[in-house]
Design brief:
By secondary structure, this protein is an alpha/beta fold. Helix content is about 50%, strand content about 10%. The chain contains 28 helices and 16 strands. The strands form three sheets. The chain has an eight-stranded mixed β-sheet. The chain has a six-stranded parallel β-sheet with strand order 11-10-9-12-13-14, with helices on both faces. It has a two-stranded antiparallel ribbon with strand order 15-16. Strand 3, helix 14 and strand 4 form a beta-alpha-beta unit. Helix 2 packs parallel to helix 5, helix 6 packs parallel to helix 10 and helix 20 runs antiparallel to helix 22. The protein is globular.
Length: about 700
C-alpha cells in the first residue's frame, strides 16, 4: 500500500511521502491550534510544517513543484503560516496590543520585500547568462567575465529569504508565552533588518563590472577563438538531460581524432551532464547565434541523434553531415527515415548497411560507410572462465520504452524467471544485475519488477554468504577495500581541486581542462575498477546501478550475458562470449532471429526461460559450444573487421569526407568566380556560409520565410 501511495504521489521514498503528509496535515493543525487557541500545539505544528517543507525542497520533491501549480507555492505557504500566527494573537486577546500591530506591519513589509528580492535574483541570473557556455575554450584572455556572486546569495534564494521570518515567528510566540512584547519586537526587528539586508546585498551584482559583457561581445570572442583554433570536425548534439550518455559515448573518439575537433551542444543541461573531456565544447542554445558562428573551417559534422534542432547546422553547405548515432541495434530508431537528410550514414558493420536496405527509408547504399565502433576498444575478448572461479552471468535488460511494446524489455515478463534460474543454477554461477537507468520511468510495472529482481539478487547474495561451499578471501579483499578508499579520496581531492564554479559564466571562464589532471583521473578510474572487483568475493551476486562500474567493465568480468534487443547486445558481441536474448513478445525463434540480426548467434529465451541451461552449458564447456563459430561470423557482420582498428577506420572516413567537402567548396568558388557573381547569392538563392551574419533576430528556426 505504501508503494502504491509513493507511486501516486510521485515521491521518491517512504520518508518523502511521510514528510509530504506531515506538511499537508500541518497547516490544518496550525489553524486548529490558532482557533483553540493553544500555543504549544501551534509551536509543534509550525515546527512540523517548517521541517517537512525544508526536507521536501532538499529532495527536490515532485509534490513541491505540483503545489505551486495549484496556488499553494512556497511563498503562499509561508504567508498562510504568518496569517495564522496573527489569528493566534487575536484569539489570545492581543488584538489591541502593540505587538499585534507590529506583527502585522512586519509581515506586510516582509512580504513586500519578496518582490524586489525575486526581481533582483532573476535579473542577476539573466544578466550573467551568456549566449554561449564553453569548456576548454579560452575566452578569459579575450573578454572580462567577473566572478559569480557568492553562492550563499543565489542558491535556493527564495527559501533563504522566506525562512528569515523564523526570527519574527519565534519572537512573537515567546512574547505570547511570557506575556511581554520585548521578545516579539526583537524578532520582528531582526527579520525586517535581515530581509532588507538581503535585498541590499544583491544590488551590486545587477550592473557594472559584476556582470559579463553583452551578447555581441561574447559571440565576437567565440568567433575570434574559432578563427584561431580552426576546428575541422564537429560533434553536434541536442537532447534532454537524460540523453547526455548519447554524446558522452563519443568523447573518447573525438579526443582520438586526427583532425581538430569541436563539440557543439544546444542545451545547457547537457553541458552540465557532460563527462570530462579535453575536446573544446561550445553550448549554443540560440539557433540564430549558432547560425551566425564562424564555422568556416569545419568540413565534417557528426550527429549522434536525430532531433529537430539539427536543422540549424544541417543548413550549412560548406561541411559534410554524417549520422553516427548512439548505438547499433535492430530497433526502429536505427533506421529512422530522418537519416536521409545527411550526406553519409556511418554504421559499425555490414549489418547496418543491410538494415537500411531492408527498411527502404530513402538512405542510399552509396551514402553508407562502415567504420566499426571505436567505443568498443575497451571490451576484452573471452578466454574462457579463469581457473578457480565460478562463471559470472550478467543480466542487463533494457528499459520498457515509450510505446508499451512487451518486446522492448524482458524485465516485466521474464526478469524474475531469469534471475531465479541463475541463482539456483547447479553448478553455481554468479549473477550481476545491471538494469537500464531509465527502468521504471514510464511503466510502474517495470519499476516494480526491477525492485523484486533486486530483492531476489540481494537475498541470494546473503544466502551465499552463509553457504559453507563459498569462502571469502579476506586477505585479498581487505587491501582492495583500502585501495578503493584511497582512490576515491584522491578522486574527490582532484574533483575539488579546481574549486566549485559559481555559475555558468564563471565555469565558462575557468573551464579549461588540466590535461595532466585529466589523465590522472582516467588512470585512477581504471585502478578503481580493478580494485572494485577485487573488494568482494568472485562468487558474490551483485546489483550494479549508477555510473560506476561501467557497462563495459561488467562485460569484461562476465562470462555470458542475458539481455534484450538493444545496442547492449551488439556491443557484447565484440567480446565473443556466449549470450542470450529474451523473446519477450513471443514471436518464436525463427521470426525473432529474422527480425533481429544481433540474436542470430544467441540462445533465444522464452519468458519461461527453460532454454537458459543451454547458455550455461556453453559457458562451462566452451569446446561444446554450438554457437561459437556463429558468434565470430556475426561479430564481423555487425561490427566490422578487427583490422584495421575501428578508430583507424573512423579517422579514414573523416579524412575522406573532409576531402569531399573541400572539393565541393572549391568547385563552388570556381563556378561562382567563372560566372562573375558574388560568393553569397546566385540566381536569387541565398547560400548559408558560416561566419557571415545572415540570420536576423526573428529568424529563430533557421529557415527563411522565402
Amino acid at each position: 500500500m505504501i508503494s502504491t501511495a509513493i507511486r501516486v504521489a510521485r515521491v521518491g521514498s517512504a520518508a518523502e511521502l511521510a514528510a509530504a503528509a506531515l506538511m499537508i496535515l500541518g497547516f490544518p493543525a496550525l489553524m486548529l491550534a490558532a482557533l483553540v487557541p493553544s500555543i504549544p500545539a501551534f509551536v509543534a505544528a509550525a515546527a512540523v510544517t517548517y521541517l517537512a517543507d525544508h526536507y521536501l525542497h532538499r529532495k527536490s520533491s515532485y509534490l513541491i513543484n505540483r503545489l505551486s501549480k495549484v496556488r499553494a507555492g512556497l511563498s503562499i505557504r509561508f504567508l498562510i503560516r504568518q496569517l495564522l500566527l496573527i489569528l493566534l494573537l487575536a484569539r489570545l486577546s492581543h488584538a489591541d496590543d502593540l505587538i499585534f500591530y507590529g506583527t502585522v506591519a512586519c509581515f506586510i513589509a516582509f512580504y513586500g520585500l519578496q518582490a524586489p528580492h525575486g526581481a533582483l535574483v532573476t535579473l542577476i541570473r539573466n544578466r550573467r547568462r551568456m549566449p554561449v557556455a564553453t569548456r576548454n575554450v579560452d575566452l578569459k584572455s579575450r573578454i572580462r567575465i567577473p566572478d559569480a556572486p557568492p553562492r550563499r546569495l543565489l542558491h535556493r534564494s527564495a527559501e533563504k529569504m522566506l525562512h528569515l521570518d523564523l526570527f519574527a515567528v519565534v519572537g512573537i510566540l515567546v512574547s505570547a508565552i511570557v506575556d511581554t512584547s520585548a521578545a516579539g519586537f526583537v524578532g520582528v526587528g531582526i527579520t525586517t533588518a535581515l530581509g532588507c539586508g538581503y535585498v541590499l546585498a544583491l544590488l551590486p551584482y545587477v550592473r557594472g563590472r559584476k556582470i559579463p559583457p553583452k551578447a555581441d561581445v561574447v559571440l565576437a570572442a567565440v568567433d575570434d577563438w574559432l578563427g584561431v583554433h580552426k576546428p575541422e570536425t564537429v560533434l553536434y548534439f541536442s537532447g534532454s538531460k537524460d540523453s547526455a550518455y548519447q554524446v558522452n559515448m563519443w568523447l573518447e573518439t573525438m579526443e582520438r581524432l586526427e583532425t581538430r575537433p569541436l563539440i557543439i551542444l544546444r542545451e545547457r543541461a547537457i553541458l552540465n551532464s557532460l563527462a570530462p573531456t579535453t575536446v573544446p565544447v561550445v553550448c549554443v542554445p540560440g539557433g540564430v547565434h549558432l547560425m551566425n558562428m564562424d564555422l568556416s573551417n569545419v568540413r565534417v559534422a557528426l550527429y549522434a541523434a536525430n532531433v529537430g534542432k539539427n536543422i540549424h547546422l544541417l543548413r550549412v553547405p560548406t561541411m559534410k553531415h554524417v549520422f553516427i548515432g548512439h548505438g547499433d541495434s535492430d530497433k526502429l530508431a536505427s533506421v529512422n527515415p530522418y537519416s536521409k537528410v545527411y550526406d553519409e550514414v556511418w554504421t559499425a558493420g555490414r549489418a547496418g548497411r543491410d538494415r537500411y536496405a531492408i527498411a527502404d527509408v530513402g538512405v542510399r547504399d552509396d551514402d553508407i560507410v562502415e567504420v566499426g565502433r571505436p567505443q568498443l576498444a575497451p571490451i576484452q575478448s573471452w578466454q574462457g572462465v579463469p581457473d578457480g572461479r565460478i562463471p559470472t552471468v550478467l543480466y542487463a535488460p533494457t528499459w520498457e520504452g515509450w510505446d508499451g511494446n512487451p518486446g522492448n524489455t524482458s524485465i516485466v515478463l521474464a526478469g524474475e524467471n531469469i534471475v531465479t534460474e541463475l541463482v539456483k543454477a547447479d553448478p553455481p554461477v554468479r549473477v550481476l544485475y545491471k538494469p537500464h537507468p531509465f527502468t521504471g520511468t514510464v511503466s510502474a510495472e517495470a519499476g516494480a519488477a526491477h525492485r523484486r529482481i533486486t530483492a531476489l539478487v540481494e537475498k541470494a547474495a546473503a544466502e551465499r554468504t552463509a553457504d559453507s561451499r563459498f569462502t571469502a578471501d579476506a586477505a585479498a579483499q581487505s587491501p582492495a577495500g583500502a585501495e578503493l578508499t584511497r582512490i576515491e579520496a584522491r578522486l574527490a581531492e582532484l574533483a575539488g581541486a579546481g574549486g566549485a564554479k559559481g555559475d555558468e559564466a564563471e565555469a565558462t571562464r575557468d573551464g579549461v581542462v588540466d590535461v595532466t589532471k585529466h589523465e590522472e583521473v582516467a588512470r585512477l578510474r581504471a585502478e578503481w575498477n580493478d580494485a572494485y572487483w577485487r573488494s568482494f568475493p568472485s562468487y558474490e551476486h551483485r546489483v550494479i546501478t549508477g555510473a560506476e562500474p561501467r557497462l563495459y567493465d561488467c562485460f569484461n568480468v562476465s562470462d555470458a550475458m542475458v539481455s534484450d534487443i538493444s545496442s547492449v547486445v551488439s556491443d557484447f558481441i565484440a567480446s565473443g562470449k556466449p549470450y542470450a536474448v529474451t523473446d519477450s513478445a513471443e514471436l518464436g525463434v525463427e521470426e525473432f532471429k529474422r527480425q533481429n540480426t544481433a540474436v542470430r548467434a544467441a540462445t533465444i529465451l522464452s519468458n519461461g526461460v527453460s532454454e537458459l541451461g543451454g547458455l550455461l552449458d556453453a559457458v562451462r564447456d566452451p569446446s561444446a559450444d554450438p554457437l561459437a563459430e556463429d558468434r565470430k561470423e556475426l561479430k564481423r557482420y555487425l561490427l566490422g573487421p578487427d583490422e584495421p582498428t575501428s578508430i583507424d577506420q573512423f579517422n579514414t572516413a573523416v579524412a575522406d569526407l573532409a576531402r569531399k567537402a573541400e572539393a565541393r567548396n572549391v568547385g563552388q568558388e570556381s563556378r561562382l568566380g567563372a560566372a562573375g557573381e558574388g560568393p553569397v547569392e546566385t540566381a536569387g538563392l541565398t547560400i548559408a556560409v558560416p561566419g557571415q551574419r545572415v540570420a536576423s533576430a526573428g529568424d529563430t528556426d533557421g529557415v527563411s520565410a522565402g
